[in-house]
Amino acid sequence: MAQDNGQPGSTDKNKNKKLWGGRFAGTTAASVEAFTESISYDWRLYRHDIQGSMAHARMLARQGLISEQERDAILKGLAEIESEIEQDRFTFRPELEDIHMNIEKALTEKVGAAGEKLHTARSRNDQVALDIRLYLRDEGRVLDELLAGVQKSFVRLARRYLGAVMPGYTHLQRAQPVLLSHHLLAYYEMFGRDRGRVADCVRRLAVMPLGAAAMAGTGLPIDRRFVARELGFDEITANSMDTSGDRDFAMEMLFCLTVIQLHLSRLAEELVLWSSKEFEFIDIGDRYCTGSSIMPQKKNPDIPELIRGKTGRVAGALVALLMTVKGLPMTYNRDLQEDKEQLFDALDTVKASLSITAELLDNTTFRTDRLAEATRGGFMTATDLADYLVKKNMPFRQAHGVVGRIVAHCQERDVEIDELELDELRQFSDLIEEDVFEVLSVEGSVNSRVSEGGTARVRVEEALERAERQLGMT
Ligand code: ARG
C-alpha cells in the first residue's frame, strides 16, 4: 500500500488530499465537492459504519492481514470517534465527501498507519451496502415496535367499545350493520400485515455484503463468514457484482413504508370524516386538534390531514428510488447514492406518523349514540331478510328480487322494513313469518354473522382475545 513514511494524513502536504487523491493533480473544484458530497445526510450511518469497520478489522487481524496491535489501535480509535460523534464533538468535513471517508480520515489522524490499513480488501461500494443493511435492520425493529403500539391503541378501543354497533360501508354507502370493534380490529389486521412485511424485508436484507469489494471480490485471504457471524448475519451475499449494484432491499423497505403510510392515510380519512358535523362519530381530544386563525368556532383534525398529506411524500420516495435504479448498468453507479435521502425521509415520516397516530387514537372517543342512530334509515338489514328467505328455501336471486321490491315499497312510504306490519310483508312472500322481526333488528343482523372472520359478537370477542394475546396485553 502506498504510504508516506507511515505517517500519512499528518503531513501538511497530505492535509487536503483526498483519500483517493493519488492519481489526481491539484484539488477538486468546490462546486464538484458541493454537488457530490453525501456527508450532510449519510452521517446518520456513522454507528453502523463503525460497527461494520470493527468487524472488518477483527477479521483482518484474524487472517494476518493486520497485526493485533493495529487491530486494537483501530478498534480504540473507532470507539473514540463514535463517542465524539455522539457527543457532538466531531467535525464532519464535506470535502471528505461521505461518512465512510470522514471516519477513515479521522481514524488515520488518530492512530496513524494502522488507520490506513482498515480499508484493506474493502471498497466503499460494499461498505455502503453493509451500512444501509445494518441501519435498516435496526430501523426494522423500531418500526415493529411503533406498529405494535398502533395495534395496541386499536385493541384498547375495541375492548372499550365492545358491543357498540355502527354502519359498515361499501362505496361509502351504508351497507350492513357491524360492531365498531370489528371495524377497529380491521386496522389491527392491516398493521399486523405491515409488521410481517417489514420482518420479511429485514430477513431478506440481512445478508452480509462485505468482501464483494469494488465489485469483483478480492485476492486477499479474507473470511467473509467470520464477518457475517460478528455482525449477526446468517448468510453472505453470493455474487460480488450483484452485491455492489443491488438496492432491492432499499426499494423493498420503501415499499413497506409506503404501504404503512397508505394504511395510516386510509385511517386518517375516516377520522377526518368521522369528526365532521356530518358524521359526528368521534370526538378528538382538544389537545390533538388545532383551531382556525379566522373562524373562532373551528376545531380542525390537522393531524390526520397531515398524515394523509405526507403519504404523497413517502410514495414519492419509493418512486424516486425505483426511477434512480431504472436503467443502471451493472454494478455500482454513483446514482445509487440517491438511495439514502429517500430512505431517511420516508423512515422519519412514517415513524412520526405512527407515533402520533397511537397518541391520537388514545385521545379519541366514539359517540356510540350517533353510531347506533346511523344504523337506522338505510335498509341495512335488507341482506338479512334475503338470507331469511334463502333459509326458507327460496333461491337467492328470487329473494334478492323480493327484498328489492319491499325496499322500494318502504321508500315510497318513508318507513323502515321493520316498521311494516307482518301482513304487509307477507304480500311480497308468504314465506315471511313472525320470526322475521328478529332478523330485521340491528343486533339480530350483527349477531347472525357468525362465519369465521364475521362481525357477530362471539366472533369479534374471539378476535379481540386473540389480538390481546398476540400483543401480550393479557
Ligand atoms: N457516498 C457513496 C454512496 O453513498 C459511497 C460509495 C461511493 N463509491 C464510489 N465508488 N464512489 O453511494
Automatic annotation (TrEMBL):
Q: Which residues form the Argininosuccinate lyase C-terminal domain?
A: 379-447
Gene Ontology BP term (one): L-arginine biosynthetic process via ornithine
Q: In the UniProt record, does the keyword Lyase occur?
A: yes
Report the domain of life of the source organism: Bacteria
Primary location:
cytoplasm
SUPFAM superfamilies given for it?
L-aspartase-like (SSF48557)
As recorded in UniProt, its EC number(s) are 4.3.2.1
Q: Which residues form the Fumarate lyase N-terminal domain?
A: 22-316
**Keywords, ordered alphabetically:** Amino-acid biosynthesis, Arginine biosynthesis, Cytoplasm, Lyase
Reactions this protein catalyses: 2-(N(omega)-L-arginino)succinate = fumarate + L-arginine
What does the UniProt entry say about where the protein is found?
Answer: Cytoplasm
Q: Which GO terms describe its molecular function?
A: argininosuccinate lyase activity
Pathway(s) where this gene product acts: Amino-acid biosynthesis; L-arginine biosynthesis; L-arginine from L-ornithine and carbamoyl phosphate: step 3/3
The GO cellular component terms are: cytosol
Alphabetized PANTHER family for the sequence? ARGININOSUCCINATE LYASE
**Family under the similarity heading:** Belongs to the lyase 1 family. Argininosuccinate lyase subfamily.
HAMAP family for the chain = Arg_succ_lyase (MF_00006)
Full protein name: Argininosuccinate lyase
Q: Which organism is it from?
A: Desulfolithobacter dissulfuricans
Encoding gene per record: argH
